[in-house]
Design brief:
Elements (H helix, E strand, L loop, with lengths): L1 H7 L1 H27 L5 H9 L13 H11 L3 H21 L3 H17 L6 H13 L10 H24 L8
Helix pairs in contact: 2-5, 2-7, 3-4, 5-6, 6-7
Length: about 180
């Protein structure tokens, strides 16, 4: 009953606008500073490898697969990471602020928060992760007062048309269409 209210009620959507704006601004601000300030993730990545998140009692690395990923993919491709992180943060923020592709923006925001936490950076990540989960679990109600009100019906119409066209091709002649 509470989740139904949360996902459908207009007043819940109004409250979510304020959460979206706050979280969106945090992402835009972080991304903009990195985009304009000569961001280089190299030092952060080296630090995450040198001092990974470890159990205090045993010193065993808690996320060894993530440390391996950083060492063998992220660090060798640091130029790509230097573009993806600031641009991603900025776009997540814009999506949340304007309420466009809100669930997608919230999902990728939470994903970045988790990645930063796995690398050992606490900072504001738990707080933004919690607020991102509040936005994400609201479903489409989170974007009710934003671009999603116009964008989602259009995308549904396009998706339905594409699926209908595909179904017609599959039904006509028994030929299969590759996915």
């Amino acid at each position: 009953m509470v989740m139904k209210w949360y996902k459908e009620n207009v007043w819940a959507a109004v409250a979510l606008v304020f959460v979206r704006l706050y979280v969106g601004w945090q992402w835009v601000d972080a991304g903009w500073h990195k985009l304009t300030g000569g961001f280089d993730a190299g030092g952060f990545l080296k630090g995450a490898i040198a001092k990974p998140v470890a159990d205090h009692a045993t010193n065993a690395v808690i996320f060894p697969n993530y440390t391996y990923f950083i060492e063998h993919f992220a660090l060798p491709n640091v130029k790509l990471i230097n573009v993806l992180i600031p641009l991603g943060e900025f776009l997540i923020g814009i999506g949340l602020i304007v309420g466009g592709l809100t669930l997608t923006a919230a999902f990728f925001g939470m994903m970045l928060n988790f990645l930063f936490l796995f690398a050992g950076t606490v900072s504001t990540n738990p707080w933004l992760l919690l607020l991102g989960m509040i936005v994400f679990t609201a479903g489409t109600n989170a974007g009710r007062f934003g671009l999603d009100a116009y964008l989602l019906p259009y995308l549904r119409k396009v998706w339905t048309k594409l699926a209908h066209t595909r179904d017609k091709k599959l039904a006509g002649g028994g030929k299969t269409v590759p996915h």
